[in-house]
UniProtKB/TrEMBL annotation:
GO BP terms in the entry: secondary metabolic process
UniProt key word Lyase: yes
Lineage, highest ranks first: Eukaryota, Fungi, Dikarya, Ascomycota, Pezizomycotina
Domain Amidohydrolase-related: residue ranges: 48-337
Protein name: Amidohydrolase-related domain-containing protein
Keywords for this protein: Decarboxylase, Lyase
Amino acid sequence: MSTRGTIAVEEAIITPSTKWLLEETFAILNPGDSSNKALEAHAAKLLDIHDKRLATMDAEGVEYMLLSLTAPGCQGITDPKLAEKTAKEANDWLACQVAKRPERFGGLAALSMHDPEEAAQELERAVKQLGFFGGLVNDYQSIEEGSGREYFDTAKYDPFWKKVEELDVPIYLHPRYVSIKDLQPGSLYGDRPHLQGAAVQFHLDLSYHIYALCSSGVFDRFPGAKIVAGHLGENIPLNLWRASHWYNKPSKKATRPSKEDYNYYFKHNVYITTSGNFFTPGLKLCAETIGIDRCMYSIDTPYEDIEEAQAWWRTVDLDGEAKEEVGRTNAIKLFKLPLEY
């Protein structure tokens, strides 16, 4: 393997104590399948860090991965205390795994987002004590009350974003499946299960949350806070001109919560990755729209194949310097990874 391979920053794992989190997702993906075989096979891929995953990284030229707890993670746990306990245990386990090969792997913290103050404390612990390079949250936090969802664009979450800015680490916004209760007959996805998942639902749901963060004033109050959106920015870059155009109309501008438009925040507070969206024209559009320095390579292991991602990456016809930036340099700079560039 070249010592200057690619760096992938949205790569999923599960821990032995959090395998149970896969059960609801598995039920959504495989309705009517009560066997454990497929679930165990999926869990095995997520548990594997140092065996087949590392061997494939070596064979394909992936130098380094940032690992994070797979969706829905702690965002799928409605009980606050259990979510907090799960996050701490997952982060401790991942830190032990990373310590075995710190030159190949790093960690992003799992976080319960029920209590913004507690989330801030756990992020700080993960960064300062465990050596993690940021955090990852899976869209909204599931809760028992009201809509059953808590989004992170309200003033309630200011203590969290304040800590993010203070620590100067990014927060990765990752999509998730809706819960079983959102799949009842008569519901949006209950009547249209074919729209569930990565092809459609993921980017529709998460892009709403990202638009909300960019228009709520969060980044005015905490201009140093940074977020990362995978899958080529959850399709938002293609819509940035139109979204900003309408957001800047006098009737909107006079009453909007944020000082600037979506385009501004994507150029100052948002980064995007190629995870699971290996589409060269799309990557070029992102680079032209928000800047090559805000674009990073990712795979989405094990939901996407390392081999397929790397085969695509070898065909990407960016010039040498730009390809190096997207493939490794931008990630090293943003996450402050202990790698040379």
